[in-house]
Write a structure and sequence with these properties.
32% of the residues lie in helices and 15% in strands. Helix 1 links the parallel strand 1 and strand 2. Helix 2 packs parallel to helix 10 and helix 3 packs across helix 4. The protein binds flavin-adenine dinucleotide (FAD).
Length: 467
């Protein structure tokens, strides 16, 4: 049987190789280290953790990444079994001994009879004879390959820099203060004239907000992140430094908007939020990319009227990151729409985090193996953590058509905002409210995800057994 070629032996590539080989398909895993390094990796081990040693919460009842852990364990993940075997104490989180973890992954892959590891840099797209291939080269993809991907997908389609605006859970926005309206009630493509949520500010609120941006602690760029800002993507605090009126003439301009709650009061400035996923559960703060420290962001953004109790699905950030405009480029099996048999996996697809990258490696590995074996494979249901993340990357995200030239797809960690909503049954005689209701929803979503994931995996196994 011809092998699957996997480029990149990080979190995603290692998991993809394991899944494909466990399905009985030979794999060649191409990893450039130690022949060529990256600015963040320090060893030549596979699945090296470049920064923290945490896989985050291991709570599979009320935490989305905990649910993802549980699904990966059900699917026989090498990253999870190696993590579990090298756990160090970290409260409710799964943290690992980074060396022991990477060594366990490397040894398991080296020992697998169907896996060959080639220590070499791949400098262009996989040749045509690699008819099943997965690119899993991560946020620090080596330049020659990145250029080849960019040339094949279009220069707008591969980002080298991640300018992330914060994303808010819709149900935590106060619509007694904020209101739905598009600027000048414009009905764009697929729009209704009421596509944005608007948060109004008076002069005093605006001035206090600008001062908070100027005073707020900022994160410093690491040396390897020395990429310059590009136009249209300046952090809000940098805009505030350029003058107190800059933001009011930029992303916070109040023109063309009338406060539905107080039509006679002209807002001095307006923060706009745009729907971020097809489910309508997440909204991003338009033009609000920032380098403010996480703690500062929560506190400063809750100064915005309507966002006083906002919960953030992700906070803003700016760092180097190579990632595809996946919703436009990839199909539901992580395959490039323009080239059958070429898949992407890991952070380069627009997920974020060790566990999410490994999970998308797991899915890509299974799809590639199924294709090689000529077996159909149904994608994981959208109600699972696998499916929710896959949908964010390939389908559920709304592409921005009203701001040509700007990319709206942002890499994201798994979170409950990516899951389809669920109705929580009311306990007898009791109405759930606030935190209690949120917790009940999380529990219900987690239980649904794990049940659906089990059924999905059992369905796939039954199909193989029936052959
Ligand atoms: C500096 C930094 C810190 C981060 N910190 C965290 C954190 O603390 N927690 C967290 O959850 N996430 C973190 N992330 C985000 C992300 O989870 C990790 O980058 C994760 O390792 C991504 O997994 P991956 O498999 O997609 O890429 P990687 O794990 O980076 O694997 C990609 C592999 O491809 C190889 N490669 C690249 N180009 C080529 C080529 N042309 N030919 C052959 N091989 C190639 C690389 O050497 C590497 O081994 C961080 C990212 C960065 C850049």
């Amino acid at each position: 049987m011809k092998p699957i070629h996997i480029i990149g032996g990080g979190l995603a590539g290692s998991e993809a190789a394991w899944q494909a080989a466990q399905a009985g398909v030979p794999v060649v895993l191409h990893e450039m280290r130690p022949v060529r390094g990256t600015d963040a990796h320090k060893t030549d081990g596979l699945a090296e953790l470049v920064c923290s040693n945490s896989f985050r919460s291991d709570d599979a009842e009320t935490n989305a990444v905990g649910v993802l852990h549980a699904e990966m364990r059900l699917a026989g993940s090498l990253i999870m079994s190696s993590g579990d075997a090298n756990q160090v104490p970290a409260g409710g989180a799964l943290a690992v001994d980074r060396e022991g973890f990477s060594e366990a992954v490397t040894k398991a892959l080296e020992a697998h009879p169907l896996i060959t590891i080639a220590r070499e840099e791949i400098t262009g797209l996989p040749p045509e004879e690699w008819d099943e291939a997965i690119i899993a080269t991560g946020p620090l993809t080596a330049p020659a390959l990145a250029e080849a991907i960019s040339a094949a997908t279009g220069s707008e389609s591969l980002a080298f820099f991640d300018a992330i605006a914060p994303i808010v859970h819709f149900d935590t926005i106060n619509l007694d203060i904020a209101w739905f309206q598009s600027r000048y009630d414009k009905v764009g493509p697929g729009g209704t004239g009421k596509d944005y949520i608007n948060c109004p500010m008076d002069k005093a609120q605006y001035e206090a907000f600008i001062q908070a941006l100027l005073d707020g602690g900022k994160t410093e760029f690491k040396e390897w992140e020395g990429t310059p800002y590009f136009d249209g993507c300046l952090p809000i605090e940098v805009m505030a430094e350029r003058g107190p009126e800059t933001l009011r003439h930029g992303p916070m301009k109040p023109m063309g908007l009338t406060n539905a709650h107080k039509p006679d009061e002209k807002p001095y400035a307006v923060v706009q939020l745009r729907q971020d996923n097809a489910l309508g559960t997440l909204y991003n703060m338009v033009g609000f990319q920032t380098k403010l420290k996480y703690g500062e962001q929560t506190h400063i953004f809750r100064m915005i009227p309507g966002l006083e109790t906002a919960e953030f699905a992700r906070l803003g950030g700016l760092h180097r990151n190579t990632y595809l405009n996946s919703p436009a480029l990839l199909d539901g099996t992580l395959q490039l729409k323009t080239r059958t048999g070429l898949r992407f996996a890991g952070q380069i697809t627009g997920c974020e985090g060790y566990v999410e990258s490994a999970a998308m490696g797991l899915i890509a590995g299974r799809f590639a193996a199924a294709a090689r074996l000529g077996r159909p494979l149904t994608p994981p249901p959208a109600t699972t953590a696998f499916g929710a993340l896959l949908n964010h990357i390939t389908g559920g995200h709304i592409l921005s058509e009203d701001e040509p030239g700007k990319r709206s797809f942002q890499p994201m960690n798994v979170n409950f905002g990516l899951f389809p909503p669920i109705e929580v049954p009311k306990p007898e005689g009791k109405r759930l409210r606030g935190k209690e209701k949120t917790l009940a929803k999380k529990r219900a979503m987690s239980a649904r995800a794990l049940a659906d994931c089990k059924a999905w995996l059992e369905g796939a196994a039954a199909e193989i057994a029936a052959e």
